[in-house]
């Protein structure tokens, strides 16, 4: 009988404990039980781009393994690391504090693929003559934290060893896996061989003062590069900041980024998003280049020197402050991708002219085939401006555009100022009317100055009135342009830095049917807006809704509008169907019906640069495609965690129910045996 009572008690106890565990598991957080979460999981962060771990530059190092570097040796106090071959190897996950100097060695992380490693640099100098100073061979993720007040320095040699090259190591800091740099100290990286900081996966920088000087790219990430709260200075022998894999993107939220690069300052294969921060650029080629899209909502960009300013398939500016001093186009939505695309625009080829190259030899009467820079059927390209302040000043170019799109230019807000010199076929606004593109304005204000011979105005489909005012004799640099109402109130005013013969004006105050005064220097003319978009002045352009083509000239319907003279080559000029003519077999097209340029003179093309090495460039078609699909980081992880949590809940509940059934069965069996 006593046996029966003990069995009953055991079964009841198992049942009660099982049910309690189930209830606690389902309602634990509501009952005050703390849930343990991974701070480095995107699903547990308020940001789409940065985890809590990314932004934590003040983690607890009290129980960390301490590593002291001393020339060719390393003293290790604690588990997970050991000295090796003049350097130190970190072989396990956890926290590590490093100080001291290595005369010729590396810090290597070679842990489990699931390991997270936190490294605090607290006054570290690493010299390595033939490899990276910091090598991340394997880990799930490494956090490189710059201790407050510390100065840290990595210097790599000009030639890497065969082992390093076999491992594809190409940076003074090199990571096969994800790398985050945070903290508040300083880090100086000097890379005599290739790149400064290179990561095969994601690279996140959320703090510190970082200076990079490199033989090739300054900072390079294969999958994504995300920046906030850091002060970064890059001097690069090639591109400054790069993302390399297909659709690899750049995101900048805050901080400062200063780049001096021999090639592009910023070059990405995927999207560039600027939501804040301050960027200053000096570039030998493009200031900012994306193979897909550029978008900006806040922050500031100053491009002091470049070939083209901002280049992408689509450009979307909703806020911020942008100032560009380009050698060619300021904003260029080119519908193409790749290094050097859209350069040497006068010929419509993807090549930048070499100042030291000879002119191409067109002996035998043959000219190379010319083709348009974009394939409008396979991709959409446009410039959208809805906010912010944009200033573009080009004092030297003779065939450049302020805002250039192979498709649309759509302006619904913002303050825009464009100044191009009157010396050449410069167009303040240039859009792809030959591709079916439109140039429309519905808000914001613009003063855009350039050459009247190539001037294009806004389309009549615009919601906001605009004035294209053309001068037969150009105005000198420094001339002030004003737009006033008849009461003398100034609606727009701009002291134009460059000479000009055309000015495009628009602001919300303009109303159809009302009269205004256009003041250019000491001259003024009163005009009445009879149309939503019209041309005025003593030199009328045919730029409304048509292409300023040298061949296939389209003319505005006004009887008093004379045809403007287009330029030679370039993606916006060509036949009426948007393609450039081929000059094969030594024959030139019949141009007998071509309208004469102003004053009956042909344009001077004596300064047209030749391609590199004096060879005729390959100017075949350049089709490009774009994958518009995007992936929001963190969504998949959040869904996975939610699914796992739900499955785990029901698993425990099911196990509890099974335990209850077994307990009841166990009790019945022993009752029968007892009888």
| Average residue pLDDT | 80
| Structural class assignment | mainly beta
Biggest beta sheet summary: 24 strands, mixed
Radius of gyration of CA atoms, rounded to a whole number: 33 Å
Number of H/I helices? 4
Which parts are unreliable, with pLDDT below 50 for 5 consecutive residues or more?
337-378, 541-646
Spatial gap, N to C terminus:
9 Å
Provide a brief overview of the structure:
By secondary structure, the protein is mainly beta. It contains four helices and 42 strands.
Question: How is this structure best described in words?
Answer:
With 675 residues, the chain is mainly beta. The chain is built from 4 helices and 42 strands. Strand 40 (515-520) and strand 41 (523-528) form a beta hairpin. The longest helix has 40 residues, at 635-674. Residues 337-378 and 541-646 have low confidence and may be disordered.
